[in-house]
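Translate structure to sequence.
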């Protein structure tokens, strides 16, 4: 999609867990070519919002539109097939498989819906295409030379980057990341930030859900701040950082 085109639109999202309103009437958009950060203190409702928009959890009310289609109520798999790729807060790589095979699984998820992981039966041409795509994505993150090492042997920061390559192998329109900087060392955070900026320059659109405010501040074009389930403010990083309500929320949380 051309730069600036509306990709994702969350409209009046509400999620109740019994009496608790975890997400309370939240609306925001993501446009092609930008990195948007969804931040907020612990318990603000970020993960719940992430799960609503990726189809992992059903909404109590509200809508999600993706690429002009109403995807409210669709499964995570159905939304993924439309071009929304996600990573998980806890790394979900296969540690005993090679880097190449891990990324190939991501490519395969898009090429043939419904058949994942072991026991695949692919013809040779299909297999060659998937391997080529996996090498291409490993090259993009600078790990092509280590294609045959085991994913489990990588440091956590590199595993996170490998997970992103796996998500990219499905050729998504939108990449949604759940706390990618959590647990990373300072140097690993820098490497991750550099990679995400590089991807943006290549036209990848990214929505990043993150607790680490310093990490997102240096990265994103726009921020949506949640607190107690509601959207507190939205805007450019400098304005958001200076906002007294945001400072109070972070200090209080
Ligand atoms: P954040 O990711 O911003 O830390 P969450 O979305 O995880 O916040 O949680 C928001 C609120 O919803 C919290 O009060 C949390 O305890 C509650 N919550 C989250 N998931 C569930 C669930 N499955 N059942 C009940 N309450 C939940
Ligand atoms: Mg969370």
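Result:
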């Amino acid at each position: 999609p051309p730069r600036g085109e509306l990709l994702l639109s969350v409209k009046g999202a509400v999620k109740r867990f019994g009496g608790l309103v975890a997400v309370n009437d939240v609306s925001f958009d993501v446009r092609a070519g930008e990195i948007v950060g969804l931040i907020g203190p612990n318990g603000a409702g970020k993960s719940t919002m992430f799960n609503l928009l990726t189809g992992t959890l059903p909404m109590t009310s509200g809508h999600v539109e993706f690429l002009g289609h109403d995807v409210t109520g669709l499964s995570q798999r159905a939304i993924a097939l439309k071009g929304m790729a996600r990573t998980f807060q806890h790394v979900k790589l296969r540690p005993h498989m090679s880097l190449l095979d891990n990324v190939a699984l991501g490519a395969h998820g898009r090429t043939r819906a419904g058949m994942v992981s072991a026991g695949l039966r692919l013809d040779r041409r299909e297999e060659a295409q998937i391997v080529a795509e996996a090498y291409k994505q490993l090259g993009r993150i600078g790990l092509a030379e280590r294609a045959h090492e085991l994913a489990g042997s990588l440091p956590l920061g590199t595993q996170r980057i490998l997970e992103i390559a796996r998500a990219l192998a499905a050729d998504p329109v939108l990449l949604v990341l759940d706390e990618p900087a959590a647990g990373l060392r300072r140097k690993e955070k820098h490497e991750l930030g550099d990679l995400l900026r590089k991807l943006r320059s290549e036209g990848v659109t990214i929505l990043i859900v993150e607790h680490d405010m310093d990490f997102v501040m240096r990265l994103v074009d726009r921020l949506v701040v949640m607190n107690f389930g509601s959207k507190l403010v939205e805007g450019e990083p400098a304005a958001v950082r200076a906002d007294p309500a945001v400072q109070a929320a972070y200090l209080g949380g």
